[in-house]
């Protein structure tokens, strides 16, 4: 997961699941909110008018769900290595929130909601959650093969099950594999990281970010020539890539 040096509302505010649950309870009770703000937060503001999003709308700052439980509020969080989810029902005064430190935390959302709340929930079948529920389990299998050094098997698995979902026309863009690769680098799974960056480059050949990361991975593996080659590719695609400029100067 990237480390941000400046405060960014969506990614740098840190809390615990317990404190976030207390926040949601306060929201459901309207604590600290004017009546107008409370109504705006919990009432329809816009919709994502697309097939498969029936029952899912947007309030002010949170998602809305219309189900047999009434109007629910929900949101997902995805910082790659950390994922979170909540679903709560203000009229009934109950809900569930959970945080994870995993690539695959959102794959558990439907199971956790089923245990904690039960019933059918449109949010689980919408286009936002479906990739997490379906693809995360496949990505888990893919990464396990990489960690075991089963690179040929991992590549075959990726091509058969994942490639169509990652890229310009897929549910995820290149940053998913890129962030996973950086986490593998951080955990010293160097060969696995190189493999994932190479697959990412093949899937997203016009992404300067991918070649920059592949250059970093090769450098950490001690392959200076391939590091230079990939930093140059990255710089050609993005002449403003200051990191590639800096690394190429360093590697002269």
Characterise this structure.
The protein has 2 domains: 17-123, no CATH class; 132-251, Tetratricopeptide repeat domain (Serine Threonine Protein Phosphatase 5, Tetratricopeptide repeat, Alpha Horseshoe). Helix content is 50%, strand content 13%. It is built from 11 helices and 6 strands. The chain has helices spanning 17-29, 35-42, 109-116, 122-125, 130-147, 151-162, 174-186, 190-203, 208-220, 224-237, 242-251; strands at residues 46-47, 56-58, 63-67, 70-78, 83-89, 94-100. The chain has a 6-stranded antiparallel sheet with strand order 1-2-3-4-5-6, with helices on both faces. α5 (130-147) packs antiparallel against α6 and α8 runs antiparallel to α9. The chain is elongated and about 65 Å long. The two termini are 29 Å apart.
Notable features of this structure?
252 residues, alpha+beta, Serine Threonine Protein Phosphatase 5, Tetratricopeptide repeat, 11 helices, 6 strands, elongated
Short description:
By secondary structure, this protein is of the alpha+beta class. Helices cover 50% and strands 13% of the residues.
Overall residue-averaged pLDDT value: 89
**Percentage of residues assigned to helices:** 40-55%
Described by strand count, sense and barrel closure, the largest sheet is:
6 strands, antiparallel
Strand order of the largest sheet: 1-2-3-4-5-6
CATH architecture assignment of the largest domain: Alpha Horseshoe
Estimated share of beta-strand residues: 5-15%
Oligomeric state: single chain
Head-to-tail CA distance between termini: 29 Å
Query: What series of H and E elements makes up the topology?
Result: HHEEEEEEHHHHHHHHH
Q: Count the E strands.
A: 6
**SS summary, helix count:** 11
* The CATH class of the largest domain: Mainly Alpha
Helix/strand-derived category reads: alpha+beta
Shape designation: elongated
């Amino acid at each position: 997961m990237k480390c941000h040096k400046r405060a960014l509302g969506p990614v740098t505010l840190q809390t615990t699941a317990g404190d976030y649950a207390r926040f949601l309870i306060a929201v459901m009770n309207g604590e600290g909110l004017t009546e107008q703000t409370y109504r705006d937060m919990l009432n329809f503001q816009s919709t994502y008018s697309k097939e498969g999003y029936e029952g899912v709308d947007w309030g002010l700052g949170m998602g809305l769900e219309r189900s047999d439980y009434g109007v629910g509020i929900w949101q997902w969080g995805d910082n790659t290595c950390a994922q979170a989810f909540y679903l709560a029902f203000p009229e009934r005064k109950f809900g569930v929130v959970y945080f994870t430190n995993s690539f695959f935390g959102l794959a558990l959302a439907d199971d956790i909601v089923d245990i904690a709340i039960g019933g059918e929930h449109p949010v689980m079948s919408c286009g936002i959650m479906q990739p997490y529920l379906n693809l995360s389990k496949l990505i888990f299998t893919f990464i396990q093969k990489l960690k075991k050094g089963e690179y040929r098997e991992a590549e075959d698995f990726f091509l058969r099950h994942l490639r169509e979902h990652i890229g310009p026309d897929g549910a995820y863009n290149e940053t998913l594999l890129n962030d996973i690769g950086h986490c593998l680098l951080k955990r010293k799974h160097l060969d696995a990281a190189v493999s994932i960056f190479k697959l990412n480059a093949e899937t997203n050949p016009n992404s300067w970010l991918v070649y920059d990361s592949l250059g970093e991975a090769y450098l950490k593996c001690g392959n200076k020539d391939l590091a230079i080659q990939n930093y140059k590719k990255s710089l050609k695609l993005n002449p403003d890539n200051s990191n590639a400029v800096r690394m190429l100067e360093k590697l002269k």
